[in-house]
Structures are given as C-alpha cells and as structure tokens.
Amino acid sequence: MRSTRSIAFAAALVAFSGAAAAQGYARPELLIETEALAKLLAQPNVRLVDAADPVSYQRAHIAGAVNLFYLDLARLESRKKNGYPLAEVDAERIFGEAGIDAGTQVVVYDGGEGPSASGVWFVLDFFGHKDVKVLNGGFRKWLKEGRPVVQDALQVEKKKFAAKPQPQKVVTRDWLEKNLRGKDVVIVDTRSFNEFIGKDVRPGASRGGHIPGAVHLEWTKFSDKLDTFKPAAALEKALSQRGITKDTKVVTYCHTGIGRSTDMALAMRLIGYDNVVEYTGSWEEWSSDPRLPIEK
After folding, report:
1. How many CA atoms lie within 13 Å of 120's alpha carbon, on the beta-carbon side?
2. Cystine design at 50: which of 65, 100, 116, 136 (Cβ 3.0–4.6 Å)?
3. Could you please report the per-residue DSSP string of 135-170?
C-alpha cells in the first residue's frame, strides 16, 4: 500500500501540473507553485535552496532551505577559461555541502525578483542535475499567502555531487567574437535600457554600451506584477517582436552572466525555446577587453 507521504507527493505534482499546463508552458516541470511546494517540504529527497543574500536568509526563509547566494556562483575567473559558470571542483563542493546528489529534487527560490533563483537553476542545469524547479513568485509570493517562515539556519548532511558539465549550453568570448555577425545567431542583452545605451556603467565593467548587433530585451518583460512568469503566449510575443523563434539560436548575456540573462534562458526553456546558450563572461568580460568593439 502506498504511504500517506507518497500519496501527498503525487497529489502535489498533479495539482502543480494542472496549474502550469493552464499557462501553456511546454516544460512546466521547470516551475513549481507555492501550494505544491508546501506539500513537498516534508519529503526526504527534496532540497530547498534559498538563493537570496545571506542577510535576507538570516532574516527569514522557508523551513528546510539552505542558503546559496547566486552571486557566489558568478566567478569571472572560471568563466574566462572555458565559459563554465564555475570550476567543476567548486560545483561539487558547493552543491555537495548543500546536501545535493543525483537523487535530490531541488527547488530554488529567491525574494521574488527572479535572477537569483534562475542563476542557481542555470548552474545546476549546466552541471547536469536533472531535477531542478524554480518557485514561481518566490519568497515574496510565499509571504503574501501567509505561509510559515523560520530564521534558524539548516544544518544538512553532506552528499556527493558529481559535476557533469554541458559545455554546449554556454559560449566563450572567443566564440562570440568569431560569430558576432552570424546570420543564424541573435545576441540578446537582458540588462536595463540605460546599461544597454551606456548611461549606466556598473561596477566590474570597464566601459558602457553593448555588444555590437545585440538586441535589447530586458529580463523584466517576462514576469507579471506578482513576480510570476507570464503565460506562454505573452512570452512568445515578447520574443517574436525581437525576431526570435524556436529555431533561432540565441545567446543571452547580462552584467555578470548569471542572473538576468539566466532568467530569460529559463523563460525560453519554459516555453520550449531550447536553442539558447549563455555568454557567461557577459558585459563584465566583454567591456574589460579594450580590443573588443562596443556600441551605444
């Protein structure tokens, strides 16, 4: 006879699938709703990851969550070498210490702003972890619904995380330089408009502007007022207005390469646009090389 816990787990997945299917998503399994998550928290094979900064995590978080600040995963030194978001040895240490192995179902959330959770999702996905979901609406939606939070930091048992890099999901500066004017490639700048035109030059960047030929599509276009992803039709419309279809090869970038651009990559994957890769060096790397051209 199936256990009560197994039945609750299955019921949560059915409820989640129905809600996601209503949005028209091709890959609804990439997201999870707050109601479904509340029913999964007691499951032993679920690891909840809070991707906010440590101060926010200490202030309050969902019970059972460990803290992995996404910016700690954005290490430019590693990205310069081969486009990997971080070294394999670091990935195995970080995720292993978080209690994640091949059999762990990971649910990632942030404050509701999007980039933090998608950054952790991207790194796990890049290193071959198959079961990663992002909490739609994040911690902000969880709080609005009056769900319980805690302050105690979670101590977890270390597990063995085996990193299996998928280099086809990223591009390097050298690759991008060679394919800058490629007819089959669309480079998408997901930053703010002021960053795109060079008025806002953020720390870590040597120059303002954007990569030549890049189209601007700010990452905020993909979420609604509740910080949840818009339905598939709205996402497809925003992409098609920039000439992006399912058969378009898309290179996304932002400032650090992990954050705003990964949020767009997640949105695209959600609706079945799988031909998308990350330029992990992003504007920090491109702007710092004086020989590379820029536009404003």
Report:
1. 30
2. 65
3. ETTHHHHHHHTT---B-SPPP-----------GGGE
pLDDT < 70 regions, the chain: 1-22, 74-80, 225-226
The pTM of this model reads 0.90
Amino acid occupying residue 98: A
Q: Which of 234, 236, 237, 243 is nearest to 216 (CA)?
A: 243
Q: Which two tokens stand for residue 151?
A: 């302050």
CA geometry: angle at 142 spanning 140 and 145, to 5°? Answer: 110
How far, in Å, CA of 189 to CA of 210, rounded?
A: 7
CATH of domain 167-287: 3.40.250.10
Q: What pLDDT does residue 18 have?
A: 46
Give span(s): CATH 3.40.250.10, the chain. Answer: 21-144, 167-287
Token pair, residue 83, equals 């486009």
Of 6, 12, 53, 18, residue with least CA distance to 34 = 12
The domain 21-144 having CATH identifier 3.40.250.10: the answer here is: yes
